[in-house]
Protein: Orc1-like AAA ATPase domain-containing protein
Amino acid sequence: MTGRHGSPAETLGGLLTAGRRQRFVGRVAELDLFRAALDADEPGFRVLFVHGPGGVGKSTLLDEYAAVAGDAGFCVVRVDGRDVPGTPGRAGCCCWGTRRARR
Structure:
C-alpha cells in the first residue's frame, strides 16, 4: 500500500524505516569505516566483526549497515549466524560472491 504519490517512503514500512534512520545517532567511526570499505576496490578487511554486550546497539548498527549498503547499490543478504554450521567452509558459502552483487 502506498500513499498519494506512491513513493516507497510513503508506505508504512518506508515511514518506519525512515524514522529509525533519523533516530540513529553516533557510531560515526564505524559507519565511516563501513562506507570506506564499500567504496574501496579492495577493502582493508574481509570480515567486519560486530560484538559487544547485549543492549549496546549491535542489531541497530547492523540495520544501519544494511541500509547504507543498500543505498550504495549493494544487494543486502542477512545471515543469522545461529543458522550457519560452525565450520569455515560452510560459513563461507553464505558469503561467497557477495562482493560481486553490487547493482
Notes: The chain has a mean pLDDT of 76.
